[in-house]
Amino acid sequence: MSIFTRVKEQLTARQVAESYGLKVGRNGMACCPFHDDHHPSMKIDTNYYCFSCGAKGDVIAYVAQMYGLSQYEAAQKLNSDFQLGIESGNEDTYQPNPTLMKQMKERERIIRIRERFEKWCNQTIEALKECVQIMSEVHISTIGKASDEIFSLEDYATIVHVEPRINYWLDILCLSELDEKQQVFMQDRGEVERIVKELNSAGNRILEQSRRDSGYANEHCG
Ligand SMILES: [Zn+2]
User: Fold this and answer.
1) What's the CATH class of domain 3-96?
2) Separation of CA 81 and ligand 1 centre (Å)
3) How far apart are CA 5 and CA 79, in angstroms?
4) 67 CA distance to ligand 1 centroid (A)?
5) What is the mean pLDDT of residues 42-49?
6) How far apart are the CA of 38 and the centre of ligand 1, in A?
């Protein structure tokens, strides 16, 4: 007997869903975790069925869909989470339903996009923070310099020009709602990358120059 059959003999979708945190009403209805559901549209017992988005399947499909796993991985997860003690090895006898496979693939795709987005957000926040650090060092390095001396620097002009955009993106990625962050990801990704690069090279050139200048001044004072 396969791991799939044995898992299904021992667990119902409802049992598993509830223990993974789904609130199920006394009538067996729950808010569907597979779409943005505000009123319970999912009937869940041995199997589950959502009247709104059409998600459906058995206990294994539920876990596969919930966690973006293959049917076999889902069965193994259940075996281990619920300590069923099933020795696996007969998984090839299970024929997954093609609609379920399609739903699962779609969910896996969404999970991958979300992961890529989150990774991008974290990396971009770090890069933008470094830019803010460079900008503040640049501003400090210009203290005491005559304004015509500063504004003649092309690199300094670049920094003044991109600074508001850097701050704007950083505010959105750190503080705004998800949809605004996603909009930056969808629309401004390339530009963020370009401007971060531009600022890094302009900033580093200014800072190097200013280090050289102060080295020169120190030599001639000491
Ligand atoms: Zn649904």
Assistant:
1) alpha beta
2) 25
3) 12
4) 15
5) 95
6) 10
Distance from Cα 135 to the centre of ligand 1, integer Å? 48
Instruction: Tell me the pTM.
Output: 0.52
* Ligand 1 mean position, distance from CA 116 (Å): 24
Kindly write down the DSSP assignment for every residue of 125-177, as one continuous string: HHHHHHHHHHHHHHHHHTTTS-HHHHHT-HHHHHHHHHHHHHHHHHHHHHHS-
The first and second tokens of residue 155, run together, are 């690199």
Task: Output the six-digit token pair for 3.
Answer: 């791991």
Position 111 scores a pLDDT of 84
- Cα–Cα dist 15/49, whole Å: 15
pLDDT at residue 97 in the model: 74
- Give 106-137 pLDDT, tens digit per residue: 888 888 888 889 999 999 999 999 999 999 99
What distance in angstroms lies between residue 48's CA and the mean position of ligand 1's atoms?
10
pLDDT tens-digit map of 79-106 = 999 999 888 655 555 566 777 788 888 8
Boundaries of every domain in the chain: 3-96, 108-221
Read off the pLDDT band of 222 (50, 70, 90). very low
Ligand 1 mean position to 49 CA, how many Å? 8
Distance 64 CA to ligand 1 centre (A): 15
Tell me, in angstroms, the distance from the centre of ligand 1 to residue 62's CA: 12
